[in-house]
Amino acid sequence: MSKPLILISNDDGYQAGGIRALIEALRPVADLLVVAPDGGRSGFGCAITSVSPIYNHLVCSETADDGRGSLELYACSGSPVDCVKLAFNILAPRLGRRPDLVVSGINHGDNSSVNTFYSGTMGAAFEGAHQGVPGIGFSLCDHHSRADFTPCIAPIQQIVRKVLAEGLPPFTTLNVNFPLAKAFKGIRMCRMARSRWTEELVEQHRPVTRTPYYWLTGTPVELEPDAPDTDRRALADGYIAITPQTLDVTHYGLLDTWTPPALDTDTPTTEEA
Amino acid sequence: MSKPLILISNDDGYQAGGIRALIEALRPVADLLVVAPDGGRSGFGCAITSVSPIYNHLVCSETADDGRGSLELYACSGSPVDCVKLAFNILAPRLGRRPDLVVSGINHGDNSSVNTFYSGTMGAAFEGAHQGVPGIGFSLCDHHSRADFTPCIAPIQQIVRKVLAEGLPPFTTLNVNFPLAKAFKGIRMCRMARSRWTEELVEQHRPVTRTPYYWLTGTPVELEPDAPDTDRRALADGYIAITPQTLDVTHYGLLDTWTPPALDTDTPTTEEA
Asked: Would you call A257 an interface residue with chain B, using a CB distance cutoff of 8 Å?
């Protein structure tokens, strides 16, 4: 086998336009094992399925041809992270191989700043890093199902080829966000902007019973709109934003300064003095 | 109102023993707003519910009495993060208040090391930090539904009182794990151990059709078993492990050293040369 093996997943489901564009972008670069949810899993973050079993079925299988790598595409009933676990533990071993890289996306919508926590697309990329290979998530700042991913194709090929050639440090992912633009001004390395979602729930009522229920929605508020080095700033300036991310969420500053209480040997408090 | 307001959630559901123990521990400390899933949500991480609406119902309401704070307990159809968002956006405002702190747990099972990514308990604590208040997740290294949480009560009161009094830096959580022991040797501040799950899926087959399906399971492998400063080491030594965690997942080392490719202005590659 001369070509590397790339595992592709996403959170919009295997039929989404974004993953179709990603597959087309990477067919010339590698053999592809695609394991993606059988429907939308937006907002699934790093969720795993522990209370029910996971099913999958083979959607298509194509051999390598004319410089294009082979392709196996599976739809999976689980979360994006489940897809990656299924690929590493079951499906890739059946091919006698192990993925060299996990690439997730192209997401229909922005995964910059704190969105990375909620994103199933980034969950799959994180899971690649958990499995011991580099993970890359690609997202376009356009939620439409018919978003135009064409401008993303060449930069994706460049970034993926670089990571295949050079690797990434262990426990690391790249969170790559494309601004909504016909042409990009360049690529900027960024830190994660601090932002916050507000007005996050809309209340509605069922007919007849008037039972209230809530839809998640929200308005993002930038907490450092003037900072020059964030992913949000890069996107606003028309640049592709690459935020390198680590699985090590230890707050080292606080680790050095926070003094834990000395353990009481007394019985627990039951009433305030 | 003289008492602070603590929002409590978890991922094992409002009927779990761990959250009952947590409520009892914190009744003397604060007024409590409990918004927890209406059933088990283990492994939900930071997942949010975007494709269906969220329901909730009031389970019980008690006024402040004899030094014990007031209590309102809601069961919610959503994820742990949904619970926190519902509390901050809808339920606390109805009380004319805003939670001062989010406390999640006590989880039935270990959330140290990489488990923090998959944990709905830590998802709720992270969401507290997203909302702008400190978040603390408590977990006991015992998966049993009838685990004995008694030894955890006094340390939880001490840690929560300290955080209420002093706060935490913005975008910060504490991931507190208790070893399975009748008495703890002390509290140790830790970094997140590097570990990896292996053998993660078990294949089974449906009767008659023989359709294969998969259950998530797994064996953790320590990648740095001899490191003295990790959460895993503290737990193995019989200490309560506190790992301070940040929402800023930027890999600053890589941000300084990784050079992005210069953008090609050519058309995308369709075949390898």
From this structure: no
